[in-house]
Design goal:
2% strand; two-stranded antiparallel sheet; 14 helices
Length: 323
């Protein structure tokens, strides 16, 4: 089969299930619902909508990376701990070596963790679920030992402007990063050979190998993409709060998975949607914001989030059986 045949196959996988577009309608309905119910609580104010966008930014960045991992029929459970470690590393490295070197070092940490995850999963033949579950614990432990559970402040103004508090006119730098990552992810998935190969490997690894696709390389690089996105998300979290912390972003794993799956990415591989993942991230941020404004306790918010995740996974499993 030629590369053009693989391209047509990837396009069919991308647009095979109309259900993946439900997330866009759901986003609109949730917005309208909260706008009506919380009209007196400031939900539709400009400041609150911008706050939702800032909350969604690190989730969206991680969701784009996770979309590639799931598209290749892999999964990365270590993204939360990678984000936390990255927040600490960038806080320390920017203070010690300057802006550019600090950012480069932190991204290299993400690439390295992703490469380790991928190599172990592929070469040792351990499912990525188990590999990244182990990495989650290891990286989380390293983050806790790095500064003895103490936060690290970030005082580099350039870093804070680029990755956190800065803006381009009225647009927050966090939103700009979301747009950049989304555009790059969409370009790679829809217009570059590697993106098509990710979907082909996720749909049928044996068939993809028979077509000449280097399946091991694709699986490894998909996990590298996920960990690298998590590292960037950690830098955005650190920039927004002006600190690095051992638990920063650790609780976002389930939110990211829910955002990706309700956005149209198949939990079992073969189909992914970058635009859907970002929309799903906005949905999750809106839900979190709306539930807080409604006065729900943290326990109730966790219950609501868990129900959404179960529904999203159930829908993904149904699509997998029908495929």
């Amino acid at each position: 089969m030629t590369e053009s045949s693989i391209r047509r196959f990837a396009q069919r996988r991308q647009f095979a299930a109309p259900r993946q577009y439900v997330v866009y309608a759901a986003a609109g309905l949730i917005f309208v619902l909260f706008a009506v119910v919380l009209r007196d609580d400031g939900f539709v104010t400009v400041s609150n909508l911008l706050n939702i966008g800032r909350q969604a930014a690190p989730i969206a960045v991680m969701a784009v990376g996770m979309a590639f991992a799931l598209g290749a029929a892999e999964i990365d459970l270590s993204i939360g701990s990678v984000a936390a470690l990255s927040s600490l590393v960038v806080a320390d490295a920017v203070g010690s070596f300057g802006f550019a070197a600090g950012v480069a070092i932190t991204l290299a940490i993400g690439v390295g963790i992703g490469a380790v995850n991928g190599l172990i999963a592929v070469k040792v033949r351990i499912p990525s679920f188990l590999v990244t579950l182990g990495t989650l614990g290891i990286v989380s432990g390293i983050a806790r030992n790095l500064n003895n559970l103490q936060s690290l402040p970030i005082r580099n103004d350039t870093y804070l402007n680029v990755f956190g508090a800065g803006s381009l006119g009225p647009i927050s730098s966090l939103l700009i990063w979301t747009v950049i990552v989304g555009a790059v992810g969409h370009l790679v998935l829809h217009h570059l050979r590697w993106g098509r190969h990710v979907l082909a490997v996720g749909a049928d690894r044996s068939a993809a190998g028979a077509l000449g696709i280097k399946t091991d390389r694709v699986r490894i690089t998909a996990l590298v993409a996920s960990a690298s996105a998590a590292s960037l998300a950690g830098m955005l979290l650190a920039g927004r709060l002006a600190i690095g912390r051992h638990d920063l972003g650790e609780n976002l794993l389930l939110t990211v998975i829910a955002a990706v799956v309700i956005g149209g990415t198949n939990l079992f591989g073969g189909r992914a949607s970058v635009a859907g993942a970002i929309t799903g991230s906005i949905v999750m941020a809106m839900l979190n914001n709306g539930l807080i404004l409604m006065g729900l306790r943290v326990a109730d918010q966790l219950i609501a989030r868990g129900v959404i995740i179960i529904l999203a996974v159930a829908l993904s499993m149904r699509e997998h059986k029908e495929a």
